[in-house]
Amino acid sequence: MPELVFFSGTMDCGKSTLALQIQHNRSARGLQGMIYTRDDREGEGKLSSRLGLATEAIEVADDLDFYTHVVQALTAGGRVDYVIADEAQFLTPPQVDQLARVVDDLEVDVFAFGITTDFRSKLFPGSQRLVELADRVEVLQVEALCWCGARATHNARTVGGQMVVEGAQVVVGDVNRLGNEVGYEVLCRRHHRRRMTAARARAAALSPDVLPVD
């Protein structure tokens, strides 16, 4: 039976790599799919992995209707065996409902990939709706690590290495950004609560207050 599957995890957990692997495995067996993404780090119309892999994708806007889009492709004589939706946390709840309808009414597998919570540890609306509707929710097994070595469970937004907890929910950035750019870092719950980023931890370690005194 076709399924709506939500693959979720923190940033840096390999979700886009898995999306590309699923696309490769199915296309290698002659299956044809439609690939969607939104606000990918490589720019519009791209699904990319930090490992350097990438493929073309359909850029999703708020007004895109997934069900109508897939039906139009089928009506035009196309073949759709599966749908991949990356950066699914940015989808609107109605768009997640449309993906569920693609599964139920068109009998097409849908694989959605996204992070669950934002930099404030609040659920993204798209991720929340996926958790509510998905046939399966798969937590990705490639564990991202906090700077302390513990399992990373939270996404932190940083500016100049300093964690921020206010601002718009969606601001495009990536891990390991330098200077005053908006970036993101994965942290364990303890260090997310303490707002202790890797940069702040290094600064604390170098502080004269903690250096040994002869």
From TrEMBL:
Presence of keyword Kinase:
yes
GO MF: ATP binding; thymidine kinase activity
Identify the residues that bind substrate.
184
Which residues are ATP-binding?
Answer: 9-16, 86-89
UniProt entry tagged with the keyword Manganese: no
Q: Which Pfam families match?
A: TK
Q: Which domain of life is it from?
A: Bacteria
Q: What InterPro entries is this protein classified in? A: P-loop_NTPase (IPR027417), Thymidine_kinase (IPR001267)
**Cell compartments where the protein resides:** Cytoplasm
Q: Which GO terms describe its cellular component?
A: cytosol
**Catalytic reaction equation(s):** thymidine + ATP = dTMP + ADP + H(+)
Q: How does it assemble?
A: Homotetramer.
Q: Under which name does UniProt file this protein?
A: Thymidine kinase
Protein's organism: Streptomyces antioxidans
The beginning of the lineage is: Bacteria, Bacillati, Actinomycetota, Actinomycetes, Kitasatosporales
